[in-house]
Design a protein that fits this description.
With about 90 residues, the chain is mainly alpha-helical. The protein has one domain (about 1-89). The chain is built from two helices and no strands. The chain is rod-shaped.
Length: about 90
């Protein structure tokens, strides 16, 4: 989860660096190839952001599932202790 967030941040920084390089270049404005590259990078950032959101949702679902299984294990252990106590009598 954190790795994907870092990846999005890195891509975002790269996008900012690329766009600032394009805008401060020697020419008076970006050419078509540079604009295309910028659009491609924006699309990649958006795609990665969607992927991060999806992975975060999956992580939340897995955490809920883990908590439910841990509760079930605790209940089984508690039941086991009760049975052991009753058998010891």
């Amino acid at each position: 989860m954190h790795k994907l967030g870092k990846l999005v941040a890195i891509v975002g920084v790269a996008l900012l660096f690329t766009s600032s390089t394009i805008l401060t270049g020697c020419s008076s404005g970006p050419d078509e190839a540079q604009l295309k590259q910028l659009d491609d990078l924006k699309g990649e950032v958006a795609s990665l952001a969607r992927e991060v959101d999806e992975k975060e949702k999956q992580a939340e679902a897995l955490n809920r599932e883990l908590a439910a299984k841990n509760d079930k294990i605790k209940k089984c252990n508690d039941d086991q202790q009760v049975v052991k106590q009753r058998l010891a009598k």
